[in-house]
């Protein structure tokens, strides 16, 4: 498996590591969107968030929560976006699940996650869509 992030975890490729535990690994993004931009990944290779079970998800996000607090503590950023680009159409470029922690600053010129896409979905479908999703649990 030739995966860049697996190679970073294995120490074959250098990174600016900020955290490591039994399940997770985190380093500064090499092309940071903002100061302190960090990526957090499960140590075990998995390509898609949708393939992760609840236990692995809980482990990953426990680490994300822990790391985000430290990143914010160091940078002093008054806000943060936390998210995953999952799948090619969503902008995922490295097929190893990773959570972005992107500190946000006053007047940094960025927008909210709502600005990622503007496809104007049908608002009248909301009720039916909600019912379909709700019924799957
Ligand atoms: P994504 O586009 O969500 O798949 O995110 C991949 C991220 O990995 C991008 O933000 C890249 O800047 C970052 N990245 C790519 N190569 C490296 C690297 N060698 N070290 C640290 N971050 C990297
Ligand atoms: Zn990998």
TrEMBL record:
Signal peptide: none annotated. GO terms for molecular function: hydrolase activity. A motif (Histidine triad motif) lies at residues 96-100. The active site is at residue 98. It comes from the Archaea. Gene3D superfamilies: HIT-like. InterPro entries: HINT (IPR039384), Histidine_triad_CS (IPR019808), Histidine_triad_HIT (IPR001310), HIT-like (IPR011146), HIT-like_sf (IPR036265). Keywords: Hydrolase. Residues 4-111 form the HIT domain. Pfam families: HIT. This is HIT family hydrolase. It comes from Methanohalophilus halophilus. The lineage of its organism: Archaea, Methanobacteriati, Methanobacteriota, Stenosarchaea group, Methanomicrobia.
